[in-house]
Amino acid sequence: MVVRYALLGLLCAAPAIAANKAAVSNPEMAAIFKADQADRSTYPIDWKVVGAADEKRRARTEQLLDAGSLKTGQDFYDAAFVFQHGHTANDYLKAHLLAMVAIARGQPDAPWIAAATLDRYLNAIGKPQVLGTQFTRVDGGKFTQEPYDRTLASDAMRKALQVPPLAEQEAERQAYEAQAANAGKKAK
C-alpha cells in the first residue's frame, strides 16, 4: 500500500520535475548572483559600497520574482543568496522561502542555503540558531555562534542539510580565531 502511494506520488510529481528540467535559468538572475558573490571575494570589503549594491540587487531580484521570471531551482537558489545578504528578518525569511523552492525544484546545493537562512532568520528575531551556520564577531572579540541551540538538530540532520557536524563547526570557529590573530599580528 505504501509503495503504491509512493509510486503515485512520483507519477504526479513527474510532470513538474520534467517542466523544471525544461526551463532555462534566467541569465539576469545568474549575473546578479555572480556580482553578489564577487563583492564578497575581494578583501578588504567596503561594506558601504557592497551594502548599496546589495540593496539594488535585492530590489531587482524582487522585480524578477514579481514578474514570474525565475523558473528553475538555480534561479531560486541564486535569489536566496541575494536575500540572505539583506539586513532584516523579512529578508532572511524570504531567502529561506526561496531556498525551499530551490530544493523543491531539484537544486542539489540548496539544502545548505535553506539551513543558513533559517539560522540567520532565527538570530534576527532574537532566537538561537539551530544548525550552526552563523558565526559572528562583536567589536573585535572572539568568534562565536551564540546564541545556538545545539540540541535541537542532530549531526545526522545537519549532514542531510549539508551543514558540518558540531566538531567541524568548532574547528571552523577556531580557524577563524587563528586567522584573526594572524591578521592582527601582521597589522602591527
**Topology as a string of helices (H) and strands (E):** HHHHHHEEHH
Oligomer: single chain
Q: Which structural category fits the helices and strands? A: mainly alpha
Instruction: Give the strand order, joined by hyphens, for the main sheet.
Output: 1-2
Number of domains: 2
Number of strands: 2
Query: What is the arithmetic mean of pLDDT?
Result: 88
Which runs of at least 5 residues are low in confidence (pLDDT < 50)?
1-15
Total helices: the number is 8
What would you note in describing this structure?
The protein has 188 residues and is mostly helical. It folds into 2 domains: 24-114; 128-188, no CATH class. Helix content is 66%, strand content 2%. A two-stranded antiparallel sheet has the order 1-2. Helix 2 runs antiparallel to helix 3. It is globular and about 50 Å long. Mean pLDDT is 88; it is low at 1-15.
Descriptive tags:
188 residues, mainly alpha, 2 domains, 2 strands, 66% helix
Topology:
Elements (H helix, E strand, L loop, with lengths): L1 H21 L4 H12 L8 H20 L6 H12 L4 H16 L5 H15 L11 E2 L5 E2 L10 H6 L5 H22 L1
TL;DR of this structure?
This protein has 188 residues and is an all-alpha fold. It has helices at residues 2-22, 27-38, 47-66, 73-84, 89-104, 110-124, 155-160, 166-187, and strands at 136-137, 143-144.
